[in-house]
Amino acid sequence: MSIKVRYFASLKENLAKSEDIVDSQKNMTVADVWLLANPDKIISENTLAAVNMDYVALTQAVNAGDEVAFFPPVTGG
User: In CATH terms, is domain 2-71 a member of 3.10.20.30?
Assistant: First the structure.
C-alpha cells in the first residue's frame, strides 16, 4: 500500500508540488516519509506534520493508507 503526502503554504511553493505518493515500508516515521518523498531536501525541525489530520511529532509512526501532511512553521505577531 501507499502513503499520501500533502504539502501546504510555502512548502508547496518551495517544492513546486502539492502532493506525493510514497510506498509504505515497515517501521516508518513521519521523517522517513519526508525523506522518501524529498531525498534531496532536509526537513526543518520546525516543520509541522499531521497524520490523518492530527498534528504529530516527526518521530510518529506511519502506516500504509495514512495521509501525512507537512506545514511550514507558523509565525504570528
Answer: yes
Give the residue extent of every domain in the chain.
Answer: 2-71
Integer Cα distance of 54 and 25 in angstroms = 21
In order along the chain (77 residues), what is the average pLDDT of each group of 10 residues?
96 97 96 97 93 97 98 79
Q: Residue 34 has which C-alpha cell?
A: 519526508
Whether pTM > 0.85 for this model: the answer is yes
Q: How far is CA 17 from CA 6, 25, 42, 76, in A?
A: 9, 23, 16, 25
Residue written as cell 505577531? 77
- Write the CA distances from 64 to 18, 33, 43, integer angstroms: 20, 11, 21
